[in-house]
């Protein structure tokens, strides 16, 4: 005859089973361990913070200071010579902005840093009858009234706006016309806004966020590793879409929009795209330090995937460099080269967004621009 089962005993057994299940679940993702096959993730995150991220923001500050000096010289005497000198410094600074684009998490995201300083293009597409952002910007300059803090003004500031203000065909004439005083004030306000956002972001990284970043070695949503992988994938989506694909016509039935190119007016689109992609590779490898996401991937037993991704970065680099500058002209005149680059960009995106993310136990949390 079967004995009577003790109900408290069942409860205890059930609780033990639940705890065992939770314990096993926590250990089911090796990427969540602080150390994986001898690979120290705290050391990896420390390397990112101290050798890559904080220095990148510091360099952006330094370059912006140099840009402000060149801008002041140009505004004092708006001529071709000073415009040419300004373009050299503008390019150097803009390239550094591409290097911090992949860092849009933590303090950067809290400040909407990249959103305000490099939302592209400057001249957004509007519905028929509506004003473009450049038209609104010109009206604001004419009236002397603007508000760069409001979200609706993201396309009216930052480097895309400066690109238009400094290098549009009629830029020099407008810096000497009846509205030149307002235009110069607008430029200074845009620069001061960029500086303020950079200063806030770097200060938070140094004072509080660095410690939080290094301490969290998990791979779940909201963790530094998740942020990094999501930004890697997002930047590749941006390269595939807004930087190359959209101007080329991939989302408009082949109808091209050269004016949607990043840095359309200065003709720096390809330089910026290449720098953005190579800065992404540098972040993926942790600065070739042996303490990067690529090395974590290898520690988890995915060396072949790591090598495939690094090789694909090189392929994309060569394909982008094969496109004649400026991109706005190459769209129509060098279609095969752009199609080749697009194909390789999509392969790199898949390797990062699907394969690497899966192996590292990370989920993609952003919504992409065009659904791949």
UniProtKB/TrEMBL annotation:
GO cellular component: cell envelope
InterPro entries hit by this protein: Imelysin-like (IPR018976), Imelysin-like_IPPA (IPR034984), Imelysin_sf (IPR038352)
Keywords: Lipoprotein, Signal
Subcellular location: Cell envelope
Segments forming domain Imelysin-like: 53-339
One Pfam family matching this protein: Peptidase_M75
Protein name stated in the entry: Periplasmic lipoprotein
Source organism: Pedobacter heparinus (strain ATCC 13125 / DSM 2366 / CIP 104194 / JCM 7457 / NBRC 12017 / NCIMB 9290 / NRRL B-14731 / HIM 762-3)
């Amino acid at each position: 005859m079967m004995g009577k089962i003790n109900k408290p005993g069942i409860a205890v057994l059930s609780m033990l089973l639940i705890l065992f299940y939770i314990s096993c679940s926590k250990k089911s993702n090796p990427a969540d361990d602080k150390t994986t096959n001898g690979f120290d993730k705290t050391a990896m995150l420390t390397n990112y913070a101290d050798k890559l991220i904080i220095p990148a923001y510091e360099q952006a500050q330094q370059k912006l200071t140099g840009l402000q000096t060149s801008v002041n010289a140009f505004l004092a005497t708006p001529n071709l010579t000073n415009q040419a000198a300004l373009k050299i410094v503008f390019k150097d600074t803009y390239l550094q902005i591409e290097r911090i684009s992949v860092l849009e998490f933590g303090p950067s995201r809290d400040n909407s840093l990249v959103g305000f300083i490099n939302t592209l293009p400057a001249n957004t597409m509007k519905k028929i009858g509506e004003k473009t952002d450049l038209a609104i910007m010109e009206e604001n300059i004419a009236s002397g009234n603007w508000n760069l803090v409001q979200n609706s003004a993201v396309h009216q500031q930052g480097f895309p706006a400066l690109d238009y203000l400094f290098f549009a065909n009629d830029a020099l004439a407008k810096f000497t016309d009846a509205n030149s005083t307002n235009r110069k004030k607008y430029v200074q306000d845009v620069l001061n806004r960029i500086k303020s956002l950079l200063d806030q972001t770097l200060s938070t990284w140094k004072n509080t966020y660095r410690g939080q970043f290094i301490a969290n070695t998990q791979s779940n949503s909201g963790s530094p590793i998740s942020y990094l992988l999501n930004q890697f994938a997002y930047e590749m989506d941006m390269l595939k879409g807004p930087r190359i694909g959209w101007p080329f016509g991939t989302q408009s039935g082949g109808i091209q929009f050269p004016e949607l190119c990043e840095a359309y007016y200065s003709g720096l689109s390809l330089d910026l795209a290449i720098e953005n992609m190579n800065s992404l590779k540098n972040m993926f490898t942790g600065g070739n330090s042996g303490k990067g996401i690529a090395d974590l991937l290898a520690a988890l037993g995915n060396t072949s995937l790591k090598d495939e991704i690094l090789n694909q970065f090189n392929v994309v680099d060569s394909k982008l460099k094969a496109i004649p500058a400026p991109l706005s002209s190459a769209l129509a005149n060098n279609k095969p080269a752009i199609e080749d680059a697009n194909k390789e960009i999509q392969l790199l995106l898949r390797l990062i967004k699907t394969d690497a993310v899966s192996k590292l136990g990370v989920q993609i949390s952003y919504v992409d621009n065009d659904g791949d």
